[in-house]
Design goal:
Elements (H helix, E strand, L loop, with lengths): L6 E9 L5 E8 L4 E5 L6 H16 L7 H9 L8 H22 L3 H5 L7 E9 L2 H13 L4 E6 L26 E4 L1 H19 L4 E5 L6 H11 L6 E3 L9 H8 L4 E3 L6 H9 L5 E2 L8 H14 L3 E4 L7 H13 L3 E5 L11 E3 L2 E3 L2 E3 L8 E3 L1 H4 L11 E4 L4 E2 L2
Helix pairs in contact: 1-3, 2-3, 3-10, 5-6, 6-7, 7-8, 9-10
Bound molecules: D-gluconic acid (GCO) and magnesium ion.
Length: 405
């Protein structure tokens, strides 16, 4: 066996090309470089500090090939387990190490995972509008671009700022002083949403896959009502109908509706999804590489899900960097239970820092064949885009009560 390689440098770079991305860069004695995404939207510097102060010093000198041991070292070794900050930090290192291992092997990452189960991955994108008509026009524009699956969100009469509807986020330059606030009325939303999907089916016919994100705002019974009211329109899924941490609440929803259910973008470990998967309460698991401990841990989640006929539907909003998309597409190329991949394009400035070999074509995503995960990072270019504080929105009921965003 050849002499083990050694990690000689590891650092975190936070840059804001249109939005904040946290990147872990690891270098080895043999001259290999690997990069991983460690972006946790709205809490970026917490992960950067966790990495810089607690994980990266202990990485120097380790053999980069020992990915599993490094994962266990940081997971078990912290004593304090799980949590979005910890698991995103571990993911950043894990993906950089998989990148290095694949480069050392001269193989694209999917080959190391077990080889291709498919060559293209169905993806869905977003369409939204303040009114039903605007949302459907936006959906039509996505169809013209070849998308066969579209997540549709529409404004609700009487509500000012609804999740997923264009303009609901702060995009101004400079540090944001405090989160923007949205308003919410569940009854109005439940009345309005079936009409959106009825109109979508009428306009687009039966073939287009329709998806919808309720963004954790409903009670189990309200979620069951939503699911039932959407059954005639044959949705691909309803996402995050209730706050995701209450796993047993999903029994109620599952018993009451056949609308497919997806959850998991806020999960960070297999334990968050254990009941949902083993009781077959969901159809799609959305936990993805960056927030759930990297390739090493998400592979465990996907394997458990496969046993219970639950498929993957990885989170792929544009606050996950192009590195996560690259890694996710290698993962999806391999995973026997791949379902669909979310795809929202990155801000144009991101291409000044990141280079990638994955691509979109006619409703599908394709991973590349470059050794590693196929995403590159230009550190000098990143320095031109300094970090800016940006929050996710918060949400309140009409009477001012804090609600789930
Ligand atoms: C999605 C998500 C995102 C999240 C965002 C948080 O389905 O894509 O719900 O829009 O809200 O990624 O940072
Ligand atoms: Mg979502």
């Amino acid at each position: 066996m050849s002499k083990p390689d050694r990690i000689t440098a590891a650092r975190v770079i936070v840059a804001s090309p249109g939005r904040n991305y946290v990147t872990v860069k690891i270098e080895t004695a043999s001259g290999l470089v690997g990069i991983g995404d460690a972006t946790l939207n709205g809490r970026e510097l917490a992960v950067a500090a966790y990495l810089t102060e607690h994980l990266l010093p202990a990485l120097i000198g380790r053999d980069p090939a020992r990915i599993e041991d490094t994962w266990q070292y940081f997971y078990r070794g912290a004593y304090w387990r799980r949590g979005p900050v910890t698991m995103t930090a571990i993911a950043g290192i894990d993906v950089a190490l998989w990148d290095i291992k694949a480069k050392a092997a001269g193989m694209p990452l999917y080959q190391l995972l077990g080889g291709a189960s498919r060559d293209r991955m169905l993806c869905y994108t977003h369409a939204d509008g303040a009114s039903i008509e605007d949302a459907l026009d936006a959906t039509d524009a996505k169809r013209q671009q070849g998308f066969r699956a579209v997540r549709i969100q529409a404004g609700v009469p009487g509500l000012e700022r609804v999740y997923g509807v264009h303009g609901a986020h702060d995009t101004a330059a400079g540090h944001q002083p405090a989160p923007l606030e949205g308003d919410w009325d569940t009854a109005a939303y439940l009345r309005h949403t079936p009409g959106l999907f009825e109109a979508a089916r009428t306009r687009f016919g039966p073939d287009l896959h329709l998806l919808h994100d309720a963004h954790h705002r409903l009670s189990p019974n309200e979620a069951a009502q939503l699911g039932r009211s959407l059954e005639p329109y044959g949705l691909f899924w309803v996402e995050d109908p209730v706050p995701a941490e209450d796993q047993t609440a999903w029994r109620r929803i599952r018993q009451q509706t056949t609308t497919p259910l997806a959850v998991g973008e806020v999960f960070n470990s297999i334990w968050d999804a254990q009941t949902l998967i083993t009781e077959r309460l969901i159809d799609y698991i959305r936990s993805t590489i960056v927030h759930a401990g990297g390739v090493t841990h998400v592979r465990r989640i996907a394997e458990l899900a496969a046993l219970y006929n639950v498929r993957t539907g990885f989170h792929g909003a544009n606050d996950l960097s192009p590195i996560t998309m690259g890694a996710a597409l290698h993962f999806g190329r391999w995973a026997p239970n791949f379902g669909i991949q979310e795809y929202a394009s990155h801000p144009p400035e991101a291409a000044e820092i990141f280079g990638w070999d994955w691509r979109y074509e006619a409703g599908d995503l394709y991973s590349g064949e470059t050794p590693g995960h196929g995403v590159t990072f230009d550190e000098a270019a990143a320095a031109r885009f300094p970090y800016e504080r940006h929050y996710l929105d918060v949400n309140r009921l009409k009477d001012g009560t804090m609600w789930d965003w």
